[in-house]
Amino acid sequence: MLNWIDAVQQSPDLAGLSSLVNEVPLGALPLSGGLTNRAWRVLTSSYGWVIWRANSSLCQSFDISRDNEAEVLNSVAGHLPTNKVIARGPLGIVLSWCSGVPVSHIDDHSKVIALLANIHTIQPIGQVRRFDYQAKVDHYWSQLDDSVLKRRFRLIYESLRTLPKLSCAQQALCHFDFGLHNLVQNETGLAVIDWEYAAIASPVLDLTMTLDMLQLDVVTGIELYKQHQPKIDSKSWQQDVKIWQRQSQMMAMLWYLLAAQVWQDDGFLAEAETIYLRLC
Questions:
Q1: Whole-angstrom distance, CA of residue 41 vs CA of residue 26
Q2: Among 231, 237, 121, 213, CA closest to 173
Q3: Pfam families in the record, alphabetically (predicted)?
Q4: Please, what CATH class does the domain formed by 102-279 belong to?
Q5: How far is 85 from 51, CA to CA, in rounded Å?
Q6: CA gap 77, 58 in Å, rounded
Q7: Would you list the domain boundaries of the chain?
Q8: pLDDT of residue 106
C-alpha cells in the first residue's frame, strides 16, 4: 500500500477524496483489472476500505457519468449486494468496498441469468440516464483521432450506426457490463460491481451482451431468462437478439479502438480487429 502523499503524487485526482470524507486517508492501492475506471482502493479511518472513482478525462472519452453511476447504485441499494455510495462531488464518488472473492468461473449459468433478470425488475430512482445507441456509437467514433486506422473501420461503423426496427419496446435498468469479471462471491451470495455503464435501455441488449460474455447460445439464454421473466415473448426476443448482436459488437469494436488510442495498447487494437473481421 502506498502512503497517502505518494498515492496523490502518482494520481493527483485522489486529492478530491479527502474533502468528501473529511479526513486524510491512511493510504491507497490502485485496483487492477479496471479498463476505463482505473479506480483506487483507499484506506480511511472512518469507513475502512473504500473505492475512489474519479471524474477524470477518461469519463469524457468513454461517455461515463459518475453522477449517473451514483444514481444507479442508489437505485439498486437493498435489492442486491453491491457497493454503496458514501460521498459524491464534482471530482468523483466514494464507494464502500465490496468484500468477497472475484468470480472467474461458474458452472451454473442460470444463477447469472437470474441475477440479470432481477436487475431488470428494479425501478430506477433519481436521474438515471437513458441509453441511446446511435448517440453512444457516434460519441465513440468522434473520440477517435482521424487516421488511416479510423478510415479502415468507417464502413462498418456507418452501416451499423442506425438501429433497425426492433420488436421489443420494453425499457429497464441495465448493467451493460454484466460478465463474470463484475461478480463477487461473498457470504450473502453474488455481489455485482462496476455500474459505470449502466442506464435505462432495452433489457434485450443487456442480455445479448451477457450471453456473448458467457458464450451461451441465444435460445438457452432466453429460456433461462424467461424462467424469471415469464411474460417475455421468446420469438420476439430471439429476433431482437440477432439484431443487437451485430450492433453491440460494432459498439464494442469502437470501444476497443478508443481504448487502444487512450492507453496505447495494441492488445485492445487486436480485439477491435477480431470483431471487425467477424462483422465483415
A1: 11
A2: 121
A3: APH
A4: alpha beta
A5: 10
A6: 26
A7: 2-97, 102-279
A8: 86
Q: With DSSP H G I counted as helix, E B as strand and the rest as coil, what are the percentages for the chain, rounded to 5? A: 50, 15, 35
Distance of CA 214 to the CA centre of its chain: 15
Q: What fold does the segment set 2-97 form as a domain?
A: Phosphorylase Kinase; domain 1 (3.30.200)
Q: What is the pLDDT of residue 35?
A: 56
Distances, alpha carbon 208 to alpha carbons 4, 8, 29, 110, 277, in Å: 42, 40, 34, 15, 20
Cα gap 229→117, rounded to integer Å: 7
For helices 266-279 and 148-160, the axis angle rounded to 10 degrees is 40
- The proportion of the chain whose per-residue pLDDT surpasses 70, expressed as a percent, equals 98
Rounded Cα distance, 173 and 175, in Å: 7
| The pLDDT value given to residue 38 | 73
118-175 tens-digit pLDDT: 999 999 998 999 999 999 999 999 999 999 889 999 999 999 999 999 999 999 999 9
| 33: pLDDT strictly greater than 80 | no
Residues with Cβ within 8 Å of 32's Cβ and at least 6 positions away in sequence, in order, are none
Give the Cα separation of 103 and 163 in Å (integer). 33
- Judged against a pLDDT cut of 70, whether residue 34 lies above it is answered with no
The predicted pLDDT at position 105 comes to 86
Which residue has 455481489 as its cell numbers? 191
Distance CA 256, CA 62 (A): 11
Residues 6+ apart with CB under 8 A from 55: 13, 66, 90, 91, 92, 93
Looking at the chain, list the stretches that DSSP marks H as alpha helix, in order from N- to C-terminal side. 4-10, 15-21, 57-61, 66-76, 109-119, 133-143, 148-160, 203-214, 218-226, 234-263, 266-279
